[in-house]
Amino acid sequence: MRPPGSSCDYGKRGSGRSLLTHSDSQMVMKWTERNGVVDCRSNKRDNDDTPERKMNMSHKYRHSAFFWIVPLAVVSVVVVVIVTTVIVLRKSPSELFRGYVLDPIPKSVLHLRVHNPWEPRGHRCIFRFDIDKADLELLLGSKQFQEVMNIRYGRGILGWSEDASHGQSMYLYDVDGEPRWFKPDQWGSPKAYVFCEELGRRERFKILIHNKERDQAYFIDYELVY
After folding, report:
1. Is 173 strand, coil or helix?
2. Burial label, 20 (beta-carbon count in 10 A; 0-12, 13-18, 19+)
3. CA count, 13 A, side-chain hemisphere, 1
């Protein structure tokens, strides 16, 4: 049963005008209240605005926001920690030299270059510098270095011979990963010295390669963790 003059299509589509007069509208509202019938014009809107629906929508939006905010917060914290760690742990070439090679730095050590790539286990620090003969002897006397033979480098691998029948090698770089200044293979037959120590599950190498004609040296501090 419909109220007098009522219709669910109150106006022509696109006309923007209602077919009901003001008095008709009042009559429809009174008839609706009297007969307990809900006006079809306002039914959907009234249902959408119920407190229960508003509460459900509020919970839905909160859950959606929580779903995105938590991962973003976690990622932000991780990024901040990584950046802070890199800044704090990053050291100057002089600090690295004093920590890995010799402290204090000899006066003849000039044109210092360092490559300290990140290692998941252990560390690897490679130096190149000028050094005179007197300071070279000072450096060699700081540890029990042993002279080795047939030092060689190629395709990222550094190798040497401890005697006529025993040799050793270590992987330093990918083919394209080495710095431009690291070219021990271009030095012909340089002198080389190795110091090695084992500390539990760690094995640490200190390798000195010296070019007498140029008064230059490479120094590699390499620690492996097993």
Report:
1. coil
2. middle
3. 8
pLDDT tens, the chain, 226 aa long: 544 444 444 344 444 444 444 455 555 455 444 555 444 444 444 455 566 665 666 655 555 655 667 677 677 766 554 544 454 457 899 999 999 999 999 999 999 999 998 877 778 899 999 999 999 999 999 999 999 999 999 989 999 998 877 889 999 998 778 999 999 999 989 999 999 999 888 899 999 999 999 999 999 999 988 7
User: What is the side-by-side order of every strand in the sheet holding 191-199?
Assistant: 110-115, 123-130, 216-225, 202-211, 191-199, 146-154, 157-161, 167-171
Instruction: Report whether 208 contacts 214 (CB < 8 A).
Output: no
Q: How far apart are CA 113 and CA 99, in angstroms?
A: 15
The label of the residue with tokens 């991962």 reads 71
| Residues forming beta bridges with residue 202, ordered by sequence position | 199, 225
Q: Where are the domains positioned within the chain?
A: 22-85, 93-225
DSSP 76-122: HHHHHHHHHHHHHH---HHHHHHHHT-SSPPTT-EEEEEE----SSS
> Which two tokens mark 46?
């009234």
- The single-letter DSSP state of residue 39 is P
Which helix H or strand E contains 35, and what residues bound it? helix 22-35
Helices (H) and strands (E) in the chain, counts: 5, 8
